[in-house]
Structures are given as structure tokens and as C-alpha cells.
Specification:
Oligomer: heterodimer
Helix content of chain A: 25-40%
Distance between the termini of chain A: 42 Å
Order of helices and strands of chain A: HEHEHEHEHHEHEHEEHEEHEEHEHEHH
Shape of chain A: globular
Keywords (chain B): Carbohydrate metabolism, Glucose metabolism, Magnesium, Metal-binding, Mitochondrion, Oxidoreductase, Phosphoprotein, Pyruvate, Thiamine pyrophosphate, Transit peptide
Radius of gyration of chain B: 22 Å
Number of helices of chain A: 14
Largest sheet of chain A: 7 strands, mixed
Strand content of chain A: 15-25%
Largest sheet of chain B: 6 strands, mixed
Catalytic activity (chain B): N(6)-[(R)-lipoyl]-L-lysyl-[protein] + pyruvate + H(+) = N(6)-[(R)-S(8)-acetyldihydrolipoyl]-L-lysyl-[protein] + CO2
Helix content of chain B: 40-55%
Distance between the termini of chain B: 54 Å
Structural class of chain B: alpha/beta
Shape of chain B: globular
Strand content of chain B: 5-15%
EC number (chain B): 1.2.4.1
Subcellular location (chain B): Mitochondrion matrix
Strand order of the largest sheet of chain B: 2-9-10-6-5-4
Strand order of the largest sheet of chain A: 3-2-4-5-7-6-12
InterPro entries (chain B): DH_E1 (IPR001017), PDH_E1_Alpha_Subunit (IPR050642), Pyrv_DH_E1_asu_subgrp-y (IPR017597), THDP-binding (IPR029061)
Structural class of chain A: alpha/beta
Chain lengths: 338, 377
């Protein structure tokens, strides 16, 4: 028995991992600051910024009025002038009010200025479906932001993802859209000793293979990774071994990781919470068609997605609006023709 | 203070000196301010000549751009600033180069006053590699140090400017941000959001509304329930003044800058000005206003003529001197235009560069799956 990693692992929720990342980066660099609704004195609408205002004060942790377009613009301006803001949207649904500042003021400026004006900013907050919050509060914006050059778009799943990727996002000199998930905030994960360090960074743009397998590749991001792993566990009992890829980053997309896997398993299913049309899965499938992995497919690659409707409220309806484990299992079996 | 200025004036007039003159401005309209900028200010000969030269440079540069646009050498959007020169020049003389400034798309004048050269501005308009943004930005996206453009989305620059001011306060550098917008943009919601936060957080931000009476083809009366733009900041103190008088603009800007630097928070200035051209080169500018109106402004309120008359009548310069400046300016513009029309276009391998800053080189998909293009920071 070696005193290996396992005994140094601790259990950390995604929320606490994000909190650690924020704390560490605020401490490391004076120019980093956080602004958004309720981030300071309320400790964060979802408690992600708990304790930070008490530690860093009014200058570094700023409560804003409910004026997304205004404060997102202010955050972008501050980034242009040399600070490193973290702009929180209480949920990404509200970012629609500010989306012009994210795209036209942040994402495009370095290009339009031919390299004169960088914009080191992070936009973060919960994205996608929650529980019972209905149509206006449940949209997934991965595809919308993932569409735009000049942005990096990150979508962590685990606590390690959350911490390592948020730290990288804050240290990145470019606009990063950081898509969290409210239902994942309270979920605990084992965090390795390495991940507990103040300099633990994960590279933006690299996917991770969460589970090795030979029969089918499941590609997913954020909360849906949990469902893929759960489906894989069920399928394993029937002798079907799924390879589960956690994208970690939406843009730039790690197409190579997916292609390598598909060339091994010959079958591909993407799983996302967002709507199907023009979505993350649609992009992955298009890239597979256009790339070297196409010739290795033994069946059409398919997508498992949210249902193409605004999110309903009633639990039975909501449950049937997003992918369930059974949907993944069903799709795997169809793809493998078993 | 005023008494002292009057004495200087008498001395100067008495000695028929050409070193400077005390000039009287019109009183500003004030909103939530006890006092405004001084009514009298000293203009030295050097200052006068410099303001004249800069305004004339902007004027001739914009007229040359008009010509090049009509020859189809400049394409896309081109929003010209002729008529409004006193605003850009007056503002710059009221702040330091280390201060910050942001404006909307009618930005060529500001690009110059903030340190850009006529050559690189014109070459940007013609889309050449020698352009201030290497040809990748165009008319609306020019940048220099502490000048954040050139912004195409009406009103979006205002929160950005307040953000720059936030950085100034955060860093404690005693710098301020001048944040410009037009009468059209003045009705944008995000501007009111910005007024609120700038005021709450006492950001060192001078909001300046360049009221040229028309938002594209819509006159101010048809767009705004209240055309007292200097009052629209409500809880933010404001002043309204003649934007065609470069000295007025300078003194008001100095006053506003002092207000901000002393930690009192934001302040709002409305400059009443006029553009001779239409909204852009696609707008003849005469369907919503009369040629008589335009002509009247040219003959009675032209900012360059006004400064010239003042300098001549105060014996601060001779007609010949000013003509000489005109000739020099014309030459500078000609040279710049020559450069702008002969400099090559950007190389194709610059197409995908400048997506990300400080990143390793990456691949960008071209128009088809077999085309992989290279992108460096």
C-alpha cells in the first residue's frame, strides 16, 4: 500500500472549486476584480463568491445594479484600460441583454485593431437548464458564443475542471466565456493534490477522456458528462464499452481528441443539453464529416440533445425536455445496431 | 481670477503685443452646477496657431476622404467630421495625452488629436497595410494609445468609457476618461445605465454629447422628448456650450477635468456643433435639412473661420502666416493621400492574425474544409 494520490484526494464541490480559483487569482494579481449582481455583500446569488467581499473589499468585489448591458460594457472598458475583470452574469440568459458588449466590444476588438487593443476579460455564470426555472431562465448559450471568433468558450464539468479552467481563463489575455452549471455547483468531486495547488491550471482547448472504451465515443460537456458516465456504467454491464470525452472547451474545439477516439471506436454520439439546431453537436458532426475520422465511421454519427422547445415548467415536462440516461443508452444501441 | 485676466488683457492690448489675448466666451448653460468655466481665458499666439493648424488638418483630411470616397478608393462606411473640428481640438487641449478618450464612429478627428498621423489614418480608410489598424479596422475602428476607437455600435462606447474611468480610479493614476456620444446615441438605455453606475461609483468620466442636431436623418426634435442633453444625466452635473468655439470647448473641458480629478465623480458636457456632410458618405445630407441652413452655419459659425477672425482681430497672426499654414496642411494631406493610394493592401497571410493576444499560433478554417489558414497573435 503506497501513500499514493488517493489519500491526498479531498472532496470538493464545484462551487468551492470555483470559489478557490477566484480567491487564488484575486490574491495573485491586483488587477483582477469581480463585478456582477449580488457578488459582494450577498456572497453571490449561488454563493460562488462567498467570502470574497469580506476578504477583498469594495474595490475588488463590486455589486452592480441590475443593468447587464451597462456593467458588461464597463467591464470590457476596464479590461481595455489594463485591468483584468471577471464579469458575472447571474445566469447566461441575462447575458443576452449585454451580448453586443461581449461580441462587438470584447471579442472583435483585438482583430479590428490589428493587435493594438487586447481585452483580457472573463464572463462567467451558470448556463443551461436548471430545475423548474422555466423557459426564460433555461437556455444553453454554448452554441451562440461558440460561434464567434475572438472568444474562447469554456464549459467545465468536474471540480478540477472548474478550478483549473477558471484560473486559466482569468490568466488568459483574451475574452473568455465561462459557462458554469447551477445543478453542478453542489456536486462533490475528488480533487487530487495537484489540483489543490495554487498554480493548478488546465489548458483551454484540450478535451479529457473521462472513461476509456472501444465500442462507441460519447462526446459531451458540462453536466451531460455525468449522464454519459452513468449511461456508460449501465451499458458496461451489457458488454458495451463507451469512451466518454469531456470537451472542457467549446471553442477552440478539440477536434483532434474526438477524431482520435472515433478512429478507434468507429461510432460517435454527441450529448448536450442545448437545442439541436446549429448546436455544439451539429458542429462536431460536421467536423467529423470533413475530417479524417469520417472513413472510420461504421454508422452515421448522431446527436443527443435537448428537445427543440422552450423549456416547460412542470416537472414531468421538464424532465422530458432534456436528455436522460435512457436516451443515451437508446441512442448507443441504435448506433451499434444492438 | 477674472480681474487678473482683465489686467493681462489691457496690458496686452496696450502694447499691441502678438503674444496672446484674453478672449471672452459666452456663458455656458449649467445644470446642477453653482459655477461654470471661466468666461474669459487667455489664448497665446502659439496656442492659436496650433489650434488653427490642427483644425485645418482635420478639415482638409476629411475633405480629401470625401474625394477619395467618390473615386471609390475608400469604401464602406465613412462618417466625416468637417464642421465639428473645434470639439476634437478643444477637448484635447483641455486634457493630457495621458488621459483617455473614446468616441463613436465619427472618429477620424479624434484619431488625429490622440496621436495618430494623417498618413496612417488615410491609409486605414483606403484599407492598406500602412493603415493605423493595418487595414483591418477601417473608418470606424482606429486606435492609438489611450484612445479606444472608433466604435461602430451606437452607444456601446459609453459603458466602455466608464469602464476605462473605473480603471483610472482603481489604479489611482489621476487620469480621466472622456467619453463621447452624439445626439442620436443620447437616447440609448445603456447610456443611462452608465450614468447611474458612474455616479454611484464616482468614476472620473467626462460624458460629452456632440449635438450636431441630427441623428442620421432624424432631427433632435423628432428623436428626443428632451433635447436638453446636458440635463439628461439628471443627478450628474452638466453644462451646455458652443461647440464651434474652440476656446469655449477647451475651458469647459479643463473645468470638467478638474471636477473629475478632484473626486467629485462624472460630469456631462453638451457641445452644440454641426456637421457639413451628411451622416455618412451615402447620405447627401439635404433631404432632412436645407442647404440654406448648412450655408448659414458655414458663413456665421465655422470653427476655423471664427478662430482665424479672432486671431486676426487681436493681432495674433497675419493673413500671410495663416495662409502659409494652409499651404503646409494641404501638402501634408496630399502626401498622405499619395501614400494612402499607393501603399499596398495587407498581405493575405495577415487575414487570420490578431484573433487572440499572447497565444501560440493556431489554425483557422478557411472557406472550405481543405483550406487551413495560419493565425498568429
Amino acid at each position: 500500500y503506497s501513500s499514493s494520490d488517493i489519500s491526498d484526494h479531498i472532496s470538493v464541490t464545484v462551487r468551492d472549486a470555483l470559489n478557490q480559483a477566484l480567491d487564488e487569482e484575486l490574491e495573485r494579481d491586483e488587477r483582477v476584480f469581480l463585478l456582477g449582481e449580488e457578488v459582494a455583500q450577498y456572497d453571490g446569488a449561488y454563493k460562488v463568491s462567498r467570502g470574497l467581499w469580506k476578504k477583498y473589499g469594495d474595490k475588488r468585489i463590486i455589486d452592480t445594479p441590475i443593468t447587464e448591458m451597462g456593467f458588461a460594457g464597463i467591464a470590457v472598458g476596464a479590461a481595455m484600460a489594463g485591468l483584468r475583470p471577471i464579469c458575472e452574469f447571474m445566469t447566461f440568459n441575462f447575458s443576452m441583454q449585454a451580448i453586443d458588449q461581449v461580441i462587438n466590444s470584447a471579442a472583435k476588438t483585438y482583430y479590428m485593431s490589428a493587435g493594438l487593443q487586447p481585452v483580457p476579460i472573463v464572463f462567467r455564470g451558470p448556463n443551461g437548464a436548471s430545475a423548474g426555472v422555466a423557459a426564460q431562465h433555461s437556455q444553453c448559450f454554448a452554441a451562440w458564443y461558440g460561434h464567434c471568433p475572438g472568444l474562447k468558450v469554456v464549459s467545465p464539468w468536474s471540480a478540477e475542471d472548474a478550478k483549473g479552467l477558471l484560473k486559466s481563463a482569468i490568466r488568459d489575455d483574451n475574452p473568455v466565456v465561462f459557462l458554469e452549471n447551477e445543478l453542478m455547483y453542489g456536486v462533490p468531486f475528488e480533487m487530487s493534490e495537484e489540483a489543490q495547488s495554487k498554480d493548478f491550471l488546465l489548458p483551454i482547448g484540450k478535451a479529457k477522456i473521462e472513461r476509456q472504451g472501444n465500442h462507441v465515443t460519447l462526446v459531451s460537456h458540462s453536466r451531460m458528462v455525468s449522464l454519459c458516465l452513468d449511461a456508460a456504467a449501465v451499458l458496461a454491464k451489457e458488454g458495451i464499452e463507451c469512451e466518454v470525452i469531456n470537451m472542457r472547451t467549446i471553442r477552440p474545439l478539440d477536434a483532434e481528441a474526438i477524431e482520435t477516439s472515433v478512429m478507434k471506436t468507429n461510432h460517435l454520439i454527441t450529448v448536450e443539453g442545448g437545442w439541436p439546431q446549429f448546436g455544439v453537436g451539429a458542429e462536431i458532426l460536421a467536423r467529423i464529416m470533413e475530417g479524417p475520422a469520417f472513413n472510420f465511421l461504421d454508422a452515421p454519427a448522431v446527436r443527443v440533445t435537448g428537445v427543440d422547445i422552450p423549456m416547460p415548467y412542470a416537472k414531468i415536462l421538464e424532465d422530458n425536455s432534456i436528455p436522460q440516461i435512457k436516451d443515451i443508452i437508446f441512442s448507443v444501441k441504435k448506433t451499434l445496431n444492438v | 481670477m477674472r480681474k487678473m485676466l482683465t489686467i493681462i488683457s489691457n496690458v496686452l492690448r496696450g502694447s499691441a503685443s502678438r503674444n496672446g489675448a484674453e478672449l471672452v466666451s459666452e456663458k455656458c448653460d449649467l445644470h446642477k452646477l453653482e459655477e461654470g468655466p471661466p468666461l474669459q481665458a487667455v489664448l497665446t499666439r502659439e496656442e492659436g496657431l496650433q489650434y488653427y493648424r490642427t483644425m485645418q488638418t482635420i478639415r482638409r483630411m476629411e475633405l480629401k476622404a470625401d474625394q477619395l470616397y467618390k473615386q471609390k478608393i475608400i469604401r464602406g462606411f465613412c462618417h466625416l467630421y468637417d464642421g465639428q473640428e473645434a470639439c476634437a481640438v478643444g477637448i484635447e487641449t483641455g486634457i493630457n495625452l495621458s488621459d483617455h478618450l473614446i468616441t463613436a464612429y465619427r472618429a477620424h478627428g479624434y484619431t488625429l488629436t490622440r496621436g495618430g498621423t494623417v498618413r496612417e489614418i488615410m491609409a486605414e480608410l483606403t484599407g492598406r497595410r500602412g493603415g493605423i489598424a493595418k487595414g483591418k479596422g477601417g473608418s470606424m475602428h482606429m486606435y492609438t494609445k489611450h484612445f479606444y476607437g472608433g466604435n461602430g455600435i451606437v452607444g456601446a462606447q459609453v459603458p466602455l468609457g466608464a469602464g476605462v474611468a473605473l480603471a483610472c480610479k482603481y489604479l489611482g493614476n489621476n487620469e480621466i476618461c472622456v467619453c463621447l456620444y452624439g445626439d442620436g446615441a443620447a437616447n440609448q438605455g445603456q447610456i443611462f445605465e452608465t450614468y447611474n453606475m458612474a455616479s454611484l461609483w464616482k468614476l472620473p468620466c467626462i460624458f460629452i454629447c456632440e449635438n450636431n442636431k441630427y441623428g442620421m436623418g432624424t432631427s433632435v426634435e423628432r428623436a428626443a422628448a428632451s433635447t436638453d442633453y446636458y440635463k439628461r444625466g439628471d443627478f450628474i452635473p452638466g453644462l451646455r456650450l458652443d461647440g464651434m468655439d474652440v476656446l469655449c470647448v477647451r475651458e469647459a473641458t479643463k473645468f470638467a477635468a478638474e471636477h473629475c480629478r478632484s473626486g467629485k465623480g462624472p460630469i456631462l458636457m453638451e457641445l452644440q456643433t454641426y456637421r457639413y456632410h451628411g451622416h455618412s458618405m451615402s447620405d447627401p445630407g439635404v433631404s432632412y435639412r436645407t442647404r440654406e441652413e448648412i450655408q448659414e452655419v458655414r458663413s456665421k459659425s465655422d470653427p476655423i473661420s471664427m478662430l482665424k477672425d479672432r486671431m486676426l482681430s487681436n493681432n495674433m497672426a497675419s493673413v500671410e502666416e495663416l495662409k502659409e499654414i494652409d499651404v503646409e496642411v494641404r501638402k501634408e494631406i496630399e502626401d498622405a493621400a499619395q501614400f494612402a493610394t499607393t501603399d499596398p493592401e495587407p498581405p493575405l497571410d495577415d487575414l487570420c492574425n490578431h484573433i487572440f493576444y499572447n497565444d501560440p499560433p493556431m489554425e483557422v478554417r478557411g472557406t472550405n474544409p481543405w483550406t487551413k489558414l495560419k493565425s498568429v497573435s
